[in-house]
Amino acid sequence: MMQEVAGIIPAAGLGSRLGQMPFSKELFPLGFKAEGTPKVVSEYLLELMREGGAEQVCFIVRSGKWDIPGYFGDGSNYNMAFAYLLMNRPYGTPFSVDQAYSFVKGKTIVFGFPDILVEPADVFTQLLVKLQETNATIVLGLFEVEHPHKWDMVETDKAGNVKTIVPKPESSDLTMAWCLAVWSPEFTEFMHQDLQQIEPQFIVGERKELPMGAVIQAAIENGMIVQSVCFTGGSCLDVGTPEDLKKAIKRLT
C-alpha cells in the first residue's frame, strides 16, 4: 500500500542563467490557463503533481523570493495544500530538498524542477505505478535530450534498472536524461543521513555544490533499487536558459 503522496519543489535558485529579472524565474508567464488568464512556468509542474495524486507540496525557497508564496498562497486554488520552507544550506538541490525532511518523512515523494516543462500529463502516475510494481526505492523519469552537457545522463539495463548517472558530460553516447523522480520513504531517510555525513565538507569549502544525481548515484552504490520509465514519446524542456525559454514561448503562445 502506497503512503500519502507529497510533492517537493526546489525553488531556491538565483536564476542567474536568465540574467536580471524583476521576479522569481518560477513565476515567468508562459502560456495561458483554460479560462484565458496567464499561467506561470511552475504551474505546469504543479499540475503534473496533482495528476499524480499529490495533495500537498513543499516549496523550498530562499530569503527574498517572497513573490512565490505571494502568488501561490495556501494552494486552495489548486485543490492542494502548499507549504514554504526556507533554504538554509546553500550546497545544492539535495540540501534544499532535505529541508522538507521533518514534514515529508514517511510519505511517497513526487519531485521535479519548476523550470522544466514535461509531457505527458500522467508522468507521475506512470512513475508511481512503476515504484509499486518493482518495489524500487526511486523511479526516474527519462527523456531523450539533444544536448547531454546540460543534463544528468542515465545508463540503464534492459529491465529499466538505473546503473549509472553521468552528470552533464561534455559528450556522451547516452541519449536519455532524468528530470523527474518519485521515491519511497527509504530514500528520504537515506538522503537525510547521507547529507549529514558529507555536509562538513561543504561547510569548510572542500566541496561547493552537490547535484541531485550524485545522491541518487550514492543510493545505487549502497544497493538501493533505482528504476526508470522511458518517455520516448514525451518531451522535457528546461526553460532556465534564454535560448530554451524562447522555444517554450513559441510553443505555448
From TrEMBL:
Methyltransferase recorded as keyword: no
Alphabetical list of InterPro entries matching this protein: G1P_thy_trans_s, NTP_transferase_dom, Nucleotide-diphossugar_trans
Keywords, alphabetical: Magnesium, Metal-binding, Nucleotidyltransferase, Transferase
Domain Nucleotidyl transferase: residue ranges: 7-251
EC number from the UniProt entry: 2.7.7.24
Cofactor: Mg(2+)
Keyword Transit peptide found: no
Reaction(s) this enzyme catalyzes, per UniProt: dTTP + alpha-D-glucose 1-phosphate + H(+) = dTDP-alpha-D-glucose + diphosphate
Family: Belongs to the glucose-1-phosphate thymidylyltransferase family.
Descriptive protein name: glucose-1-phosphate thymidylyltransferase
